[in-house]
Design goal:
single chain; 3 helices
Length: 87
Amino acid sequence: MLSQTFTVLNPSGFHARPTKMFVQAASAFPCKINVIKNDKKVNGKSSLSMLTLGIAANDEVTLETDGEQEEQALKELGQLLVKIYEE
């Protein structure tokens, strides 16, 4: 299992569109993916679960990947967490 903490840079946080893009990318990986904010851990392949975290700009979230392609998933999904999305 790998994990890394990222700071969300998108000024609007992780609303519906960035969440959808993250979940689509996460679903392409065969490994287990969790996203953690504070003490709440959710499945990174579920849009509804991701939205319940209420990720805002400058929030720190931890990404956990476990299984096949975990290193690639951590790298690619981490980049999506810090990306600034166009409105």
